[in-house]
Amino acid sequence: MTTPEPSLADVLGGRGGAVDATVPVAAFVAGWGLAGALGWAGPVAWGGGAAVLAAAVIGAVRLRAGTPPRAVLFGLLGVALAAVVALSTGRAADFFLVRIVSNAVSALAWAVSIVVRWPLLGLVVGTALGQRTRWRRDPDLLRGYQRASWVWVAQYVVRLAVFLPLYHADAVVALGIAQTVLTWPLVAVCIALSWPLVRSALPEGHGGIRHPAGPE
Description:
Helices cover 72% and strands 0% of the residues. It has helices at 8-12, 16-38, 43-64, 69-89, 97-115, 120-128, 139-168, 172-181, 184-200. The two termini are 22 Å apart.
């Protein structure tokens, strides 16, 4: 009995991580907005504290569910860094600065990986499937991963195109909404578009992403 070909959604995982990334943001905006509305001192501090608390709660839930501690720690540190940046400047919009910079760096990294023929999508999927870099010895699969990786470059560019004007306008609530809308839904679109692009590069009879051609 042959093992069915996994979809990229199966390989790349569910929406948990993407959804988790939006909860601390919502907590920051809510804490900041509530403190400001009530006239409390230091609304940025309240927002930052709410974000870190939300991230800590999510981390505890994920640890109990079996998520690797390193992944949980990275998520918590990311939120803490964003809060520290906002606190250091006193500007609520700066809570989103870390995310903006990370999207710019990610767009550049994914684009460079395609140009140098080490597409990051191939590295992610190959690692998840235990293939390491064997997929690179399959020219068809390599070409498919290169095509599909451009979709992931585009998602970071789309976020930057939305985030940067809002950031410069100090539109904190709009930034929070934008980050929520452009996290899991945009990742879902990328996964949906990536799979047919990978498949379009594979000839008839190819074993698919689970079975790269070439030597083991």
